[in-house]
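Late entry, evening session. Most of the bench is empty. Finally got around to the prediction I had been postponing all week. Sequence below, unchanged from the version circulated by S.P.
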Amino acid sequence: LVSDAGLRERVFVIATIPVIGSAGAFDVLCRLPGVLVPDFVRQRIDGAEDVRREGSMVARELMSELYEAGVVDGFHLVNFGAGPEAIRDLALELRRERRLPRTESEAART
């Protein structure tokens, strides 16, 4: 939609990606107004032995697909029971994969 409207060249697109960490949190996510959860995500989370691990994998895959397609400029990661470590790890992994610069706070910690 953004590309079709010619907005891609004029605005930054930030995709919201939920990082699912528990079945209960996933249930809440699915009931939020305006949130559409694709069937393939439901199947993977519902059938997962380790929901936290699967939730991180789904988030990582979605981020990679959107980034590779060139349709986003960044991501807003939302914690749905995965814990702050999962969010941090996904952000750091994306930076390493894409060779993005570290933030000032990351540089200060090393």
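Two things to note before I forget:
Residues 13 and 73 are 5 Å apart (CA to CA).
The chain has a mean pLDDT of 85.
Will write this up properly tomorrow.
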